[in-house]
Specification:
Blueprint (H helix, E strand, L loop, with lengths): L19 H42 L6 E2 L12 E10 L5 E5 L3 E5 L4 E9 L5 E10 L7 E6 L5 E3 L4 E10 L14 E10 L12 H7 L2
Parallel strand pairs: 1-7, 2-10
Antiparallel strand pairs: 2-4, 3-5, 5-9, 6-8, 6-10, 7-9
Keywords: Cell inner membrane, Cell membrane, Copper, Membrane, Signal-anchor, Transmembrane, Transmembrane helix
Membrane topology: Single-pass type II membrane protein
Subcellular location: Cell inner membrane
């Protein structure tokens, strides 16, 4: 009986026409790249939005010692409890100004509207500009410290050698007396730091200091 020829088969060989794996790999790479690009774009957008959102959050909550902005005196008026308010002043490098409070500390009734002055002098022989940042300490009382008028809201441009008095009108909200976490609070520190402004906005000359004092609350 004749034997049929034996045909050797290579089981590891793959059909020559099976080529979809490469296409599937490219498609997956495109999807992964698109997702990564979207994540990067989202992170960049979030970084730009973080600063204004953080500023809004601080103003709304008093977080990190950010003071509040009021338009008038408190409706329920001052209360008998008193508190000391200290005034701190700083100038960032690059701004040739002398900046200091006229009083280092005062004692006020909670709810009492008070006006204090800071003095700033441009010690340079050229016009310079700056803008102040501020906060209060302890940081948890920012939501109770209400400012009606403050020089920090606007850019300040000063002529060579100019000296200026800048008012701050504020009160401590009486509702702080209802916050028992602050029952032992005796002192609040209001701190300002002036930073240089590289491209100041040209503004008309300021009024005299006597006129400023007459026009303040």
């Amino acid at each position: 009986m004749d034997h049929e020829p034996t045909i050797s088969r290579d089981v590891s060989a793959k059909p020559a026409n099976l080529k979809p794996a490469k296409g599937r790999g490219l498609g997956r790479d495109v999807v992964v790249a698109s997702i990564c690009g979207g994540v990067v774009a989202l992170m960049v957008g979030a970084s730009y939005a973080a600063v204004p959102f953080y500023n809004w959050f601080c103003r709304a909550t008093g977080f990190n010692g950010t003071t509040q902005v009021a338009t008038s005196a408190p409706a329920n008026g001052p209360i008998a409890r008193k508190i000391s308010v200290r005034f701190d002043s700083n100038v960032a490098p690059g701004l040739p100004w002398k900046f200091e409070p006229e009083q280092s500390e005062i004692e006020v009734n909670i709810g009492q509207v008070v006006t204090v002055f800071y003095t700033v002098t441009n010690q340079a022989a050229r016009t310079t500009a700056g803008q102040a940042a501020y906060n209060v300490a302890p940081l948890t009382v920012g939501s109770y410290f209400q400012k009606i008028n403050c020089f920090c809201f606007t850019e300040q441009t000063m002529a060579p050698g100019e000296k200026r008095e800048m008012p701050v009108v504020f009160y401590v909200d009486p509702s702080i007396a209802e916050d028992h976490e602050n029952d032992g609070l005796n002192t609040i520190t209001l701190s300002y730091t002036f930073y240089p402004v590289k491209d100041p906005v040209v503004k008309p000359l300021a009024a005299s200091e006597d006129d400023k004092r007459k026009g303040n609350l």
